[in-house]
Amino acid sequence: AGAALCVAVGLALLWWGHGLVYLSYDFSFLIREPKSPDDLLIIHLDDPSFNKLGQDNTAAWDRNLHAQLLYRLTEADARLVVLDIMLDLPGEPAADTNLARAIRENGRVVLAAVLDSRDRKQAHVKTTILPQPEFVEAAAGWGIAALSTADKAVIRHYNAGTSTKPALAWRAAELLEATITKRAHAEHPVFWLNYH
Question: Which stretches of 31-155 are DSSP H helices?
């Protein structure tokens, strides 16, 4: 009877285990005071911006607009700029040159890359898709812009990537010399996200 109970409890934890872990994580946000970083600015490519600036879609966004923003952030002496926009396809040549110049002049720009997953009979292959070479050469670094989702598409974990394929946020933290990146064994951690 005791063995059967242990097996039943073990199977129940396998079945509901992740749900209980996620619930314990989510519960902490209900009982704590929300925190907001005071030294962070997020600039979105939102619908009002699309309409006001006459842009059709993110992929075809005029890169001169990105360059203008970078010049303003350079003037404002931003500590770091993370461009979470894929720049893997060539754009209009003059706009690409302007954006590469703005990235280089800023000197503290981190660019987004992505992993392209392909399944083959023999293996599951992930290829890194980098921004165009002129942008990579001008940037302070790049990182993989990807998050893993669990049940119900709620993102709770963050993986810092690897030394050859760092996550975008981890590469930004390294460039800012964040304390967490200097811890022993900090190279490949998995973190619970702390939503602000």
Answer: 47-53, 63-75, 93-106, 133-138
The total number of residues written for the chain in this structure? 196
Q: Are 67 and 97 in contact (CB under 8 A)?
A: no
DSSP conformation class of 171: H
Calpha distance 111→99 (Å, rounded): 12
**What value does the mean pLDDT take over residues 117-132?**
79
Largest CA distance in the chain: 76
Could you give the CA distance from residue 111 to residue 101 in angstroms, rounded to a whole number? 14
Global pTM? 0.76
Q: pLDDT tens digits for 60-118?
A: 789 999 999 999 999 999 999 999 999 999 999 999 999 999 999 999 999 999 888 77
C-alpha pair distances (Å), 59 with each of 40, 42, 55, 73, 120: 25, 19, 10, 22, 28
| Separation CA 70–CA 99 (nearest Å) | 8
